[in-house]
Amino acid sequence: MNTIHPGKVLIVDDDADVLRAARLLLKRHFSQVDFEKNPQKIPYLVTNFDYDVILLDMNFTRDLSSGKEGFEWLDKILDIKPDAAVVLFTAYGDVEMAVRAIKAGAVDFVLKPWENEKLIATLQHAIENKQEQTQASKSFSNKAVTGSENPIIGDSPAMKELLDTAARVAETDANILILGENGTGKDLLARHIHQLSHRNGQPFVNVDLGALSETLFESELFGHVKGAFTDAREDRTGRFEEAHQGSIFLDEIGNITLPFQAKLLTVLQNRSITKVGSNKAVPVDVRLICATNRNIEQMAAQHLFRQDLLYRINTIELHLPALRERQEDIVMLAEYFLGIYRKKYNRPVAFLHDTLVTQMEQYDWPGNVRELQHAIERAVILSQGKSLMPKDVFMKSNNNNNDKSMDTGYNLEEMERNMINQALKKFNGNITEAAKELGLSRAALYRRLEKYNI
Ligand SMILES: Nc1ncnc2c1ncn2[C@@H]1O[C@H](COP(=O)(O)OP(=O)(O)OP(=O)(O)O)[C@@H](O)[C@H]1O
């Protein structure tokens, strides 16, 4: 006899045969199974019914191969219900696409043609997770928890010393400059310092200066008054004011132009901001933490960065070592990410194979912890057995190291991937410079790095 699991399932697939077969199977296992052939009905259904899991086809007929329409529907569902559990239904050979979709917010995927037991188990898992999360968020909202911090993993002498210093200086209000390559954890360290400081009940405001256009710079940081310029229809509070009594983290400080450096210096000297269009100074009390991946001393020596501003921001300098300089941390980090992603994606994988450990320690991780994190995430999603092997983790990373030029024909995605790799190589992994060269914003480049698992 079949067990009927409590759970409301919605299946959306425009193939009538698939729909019929899936419905017949699932009705024997779940308490409610709705089905829909027309994806246009998705918004109505998702808004009006509370499904525990949605089984969504990725390959609607309008766009059979790329899954683009499936991605659009996935986005729409998550816009309407950010905590919806969506399992993708996708044709054989689409594993790459399914991986991307999981990164985009789906909870799992099932390949067509499906194995009955696998399909039921996947949906059952998704339902249980969703119900657990709903429970957890209910009890979470009853407690006044401030700041759910991600831990900083690392046991190497270099990291121990750094974390020790960070803990000591966190208690003071000294300005801190964090130096380190892309992906070494500068943002994470800045949050950590804020959490350890007496300001931890107050806001932590993160500003990516590298992503701010010149026109936005002042209004974003200092705010503006209504009518200050054509688009200023309302008063706007700037990021400094938002951070009042808390900490402000200015990332990519090495990327601002000399005139803006002068404006920032004035604010730091006066401890007050003046909104665009106003002449009234507003006092602000913030703890300043800055970061850059550039050689800022050298920039100052070349008069590209103001020496007086540098003196203001680097009362304490913390240097985050590159991952290749703290080999001892690689396995610990890999195991940490393995634990996170096996849980997130419900995978049975639990170990790093010995051969993988050796290769990971030998590899030089130009993208640092971020690269390691993405490599493990992807490997976990694709994993089949209990342990991760070198081929799972290094499948793409190895390609990155090859100096593959544009000899791959006219596959647009492949060309884009190659161009990104070349730009990163040219600027030694500096995201801001590479983004500039490619004509992309930093955020857009990050999205592509994620997409191509670079
Ligand atoms: N020591 C660590 N322990 C756990 N996770 C880490 C550690 N270092 C970095 N990470 C993770 O790696 C990713 C990149 O880290 P983060 O964004 O802090 O780097 P960054 O140096 O600020 O990068 P960028 O210069 O490109 O902005 C994040 O997901 C972060 O949580």
UniProtKB/TrEMBL annotation:
<dbReference type="InterPro" id="IPR003593">
    <property type="entry name" value="AAA+_ATPase"/>
</dbReference>
<dbReference type="Pfam" id="PF02954">
    <property type="entry name" value="HTH_8"/>
</dbReference>
<dbReference type="GO" id="GO:0043565">
    <property type="term" value="F:sequence-specific DNA binding"/>
</dbReference>
<feature type="domain" description="Sigma-54 factor interaction">
    <location>
        <begin position="152"/>
        <end position="381"/>
    </location>
</feature>
<dbReference type="InterPro" id="IPR027417">
    <property type="entry name" value="P-loop_NTPase"/>
</dbReference>
<protein>
    <submittedName>
        <fullName>Sigma-54-dependent Fis family transcriptional regulator</fullName>
    </submittedName>
</protein>
<keyword id="KW-0547">Nucleotide-binding</keyword>
<dbReference type="Pfam" id="PF00072">
    <property type="entry name" value="Response_reg"/>
</dbReference>
<dbReference type="Pfam" id="PF25601">
    <property type="entry name" value="AAA_lid_14"/>
</dbReference>
<keyword id="KW-0804">Transcription</keyword>
<feature type="domain" description="Response regulatory">
    <location>
        <begin position="8"/>
        <end position="127"/>
    </location>
</feature>
<keyword id="KW-0067">ATP-binding</keyword>
<dbReference type="GO" id="GO:0000160">
    <property type="term" value="P:phosphorelay signal transduction system"/>
</dbReference>
<dbReference type="Pfam" id="PF00158">
    <property type="entry name" value="Sigma54_activat"/>
</dbReference>
<dbReference type="InterPro" id="IPR002078">
    <property type="entry name" value="Sigma_54_int"/>
</dbReference>
<keyword id="KW-0597">Phosphoprotein</keyword>
<dbReference type="InterPro" id="IPR058031">
    <property type="entry name" value="AAA_lid_NorR"/>
</dbReference>
<dbReference type="InterPro" id="IPR001789">
    <property type="entry name" value="Sig_transdc_resp-reg_receiver"/>
</dbReference>
<dbReference type="InterPro" id="IPR009057">
    <property type="entry name" value="Homeodomain-like_sf"/>
</dbReference>
<dbReference type="InterPro" id="IPR025944">
    <property type="entry name" value="Sigma_54_int_dom_CS"/>
</dbReference>
<dbReference type="GO" id="GO:0005524">
    <property type="term" value="F:ATP binding"/>
</dbReference>
<keyword id="KW-0805">Transcription regulation</keyword>
<dbReference type="InterPro" id="IPR011006">
    <property type="entry name" value="CheY-like_superfamily"/>
</dbReference>
<feature type="modified residue" description="4-aspartylphosphate">
    <location>
        <position position="57"/>
    </location>
</feature>
<dbReference type="InterPro" id="IPR002197">
    <property type="entry name" value="HTH_Fis"/>
</dbReference>
<dbReference type="GO" id="GO:0006355">
    <property type="term" value="P:regulation of DNA-templated transcription"/>
</dbReference>
